Amino acid sequence: MRNLTLLTDLYEMTMMEGYLTSGTADSRAVFDIFFRPKDELAYAVFAGLEQALDYVENLHFNEEELSYLRSLNLFSEEFFARLENFRFTGNIYAVREGEIVFPYEPILTVESTLFEAQFLETALLNILNHQTLIATKAARVCSVAKGGVMEFGLRRAQGPDAAIYGARAAMIGGCNGTSNVLAGHEFSIPVKGTMAHSFVMSMPSELEAFRAYAKAYPDSCMLLVDTYNVLKSGIPNAITVFRELREAGHEPLGVRLDSGDLSYLSKRAREMLDEAGFPNAQICVSGDLDEYSISSLVSQGARIDSYGVGTKLITSETVPSLGGVYKLAAIEQNGELKPVIKLSESAIKVTNPGFKKVIRIYDSKGMAQADLIMCKDEELPDGAHPLTIFHPVETWKQTTFTEYTVKELQRQVVKDGVRLVKSELNEAISYAQRVRGEFWEEYTRLDRPHIYKVDLSLKLFGLKQKLLTNS
Q1: What radius of gyration do the chain's Cα atoms show?
Q2: What is the chain's percent helix, strand, coil content, to nearest 5?
Q3: What confidence tens digit (pLDDT) does each residue in 282-317 have?
Q4: Residue 233 burial (CB < 10 Å; 0-12/13-18/19+)?
Q5: Which residue intervals of 369-457 are DSSP H helices?
Q6: Residue 349 pairs with which residues in a beta bridge?
Q7: Plot region of 147 (φ>0 → left; ψ -120 to 50 → alpha; else → beta)
Q8: How far is residue 314's CA from residue 157's CA, in Å, rounded to a whole number?
Q9: CA distances to 131, 159, 323, 391 from 50, in Å
Q10: Which of 98, 223, 328, 346 has a CA-to-CA distance to 189 between 20 and 30 Å?
């Protein structure tokens, strides 16, 4: 495993030096990671926890790194003495991978010394922002596709790491495979793919190319039919080869369309394949797809069984960053953990203070109704008494639940520096599928989704107002 210890912004380390100089380095501190509402991000699918915990677990400075830092002439010997034996010794709380989360609520919380907790900021944001963004994009794509979605973005991703971990995140978001062989190897996820146009063009004719591929893969033969002309040669030649396969005792997998009017072509291809006696031959499409183009194809009645989605998924083209932030929520003062708040002329940047937890409220049918951000020391609602919540800004908007259950979203994943959980990918995929079913479609639809309630408990609301008034 690569040592990612220096995967940080310089200002994290200059602040750590400043904490040493001011005598606050060993003060206990609480930092929250959350994301702000942005463009299409009404919700997000949390991903990247496994790599984040790998990073925390393996934090250490080797001699070469210490030598490099010394060459910057920025830090004291006291600072280097701390780095020589640096390990994370605090606590981390996080939601599970695959959880649906909403703006402003803590998805990961770090509780440690100020010196340690500050250092984690950049790398944790780098890891979690990226994978959560791609998992969310994949979830949006998969939510509208009437069929399986394969991640095809390797060649267009912003570098190898983005491609590898993007493929992992896409699986959590709902994809059923990837074209990325290294990701398949790293994470034991299905790899999928057939041929490119170059294979067809390299042969004397399209028919000969199809026969060559069928010979190589008689039981998983999917042919790319748009190199020349889909309806005049691609589908007819595919049917010819499919018949030859059947005569030899094999059944074809199907055809792939990568260009043109995919709705019209898929309908005509379906008719031609059915008439030729291949109703089970699948039609896969690819070619600069995203949730909007797929939604349009579905609304047009396109006859498509699966989708290969590349560039616009792996880069999250329409929303290229999540906007997750890492903010101080509490700091030790005079032996006590004191809540702190960040103020701003922009209301969106005012933080929620204190050590917190988040609960999800479900109705009697097990459907998610709202999330409630609470102070860490508050007792959970027991379900036996009515629970009233209110909008954190428009406080006259209130909802009372009488028949409900609650779930605390975060769990402790690191205790006193010791990792408590492994975030297995298959478990995250299964969990994400289950969680998706807990939300009404109105909250996750593409077009003007309902705003899901994320409120503050009365105690946390009072604390925030007090700090706002006294600041």
Answers
A1: 26
A2: 40, 20, 40
A3: 999 999 999 999 999 999 999 999 999 999 999 999
A4: middle
A5: 425-436, 441-444
A6: none
A7: left
A8: 6
A9: 11, 20, 20, 34
A10: 223
| Among 166, 38, 149, 109, CA closest to 327 | 109
Dmax (CA) for the chain in angstroms is 84
pLDDT in tens, 74-108: 999 999 999 999 999 999 999 999 999 999 999 99
Q: What is the pTM of this model?
A: 0.96
**Residue type for 24, please?**
T
Beta-strand pair 453-456/368-375: parallel
Nearest Cα to 364, choosing from 398, 400, 405? 405
Sign of the C-alpha dihedral, residues 327, 332, 338, 342? negative
**Beta carbons within 8 Å of 247's beta carbon, 6+ residues apart:** none
CA distances from 56 to 17, 35, 135, 423 (A): 20, 21, 22, 14
> Can you list the domains of the chain with their CATH numbers?
10-135+319-470 (3.20.140.10), 136-314 (3.20.20.70)
Rounded Cα–Cα distance for residues 407 and 413 (Å): 17
User: Which residue has 């030598």 as its token pair?
Assistant: 67
SS3 call for 221: coil
Enumerate residues 6+ apart whose C-beta is below 8 A from 52. 94, 108, 123, 124, 127, 128
HSE value, Cβ hemisphere, 13 Å, CA-based, for 127: 22
Specify the pLDDT at position 154.
97
**How many other C-beta atoms are found inside a 10 Å radius of the C-beta of residue 426?**
11
Q: Which two tokens stand for residue 419?
A: 């990792």
- Amino acid identity for residue 159 in this structure: G
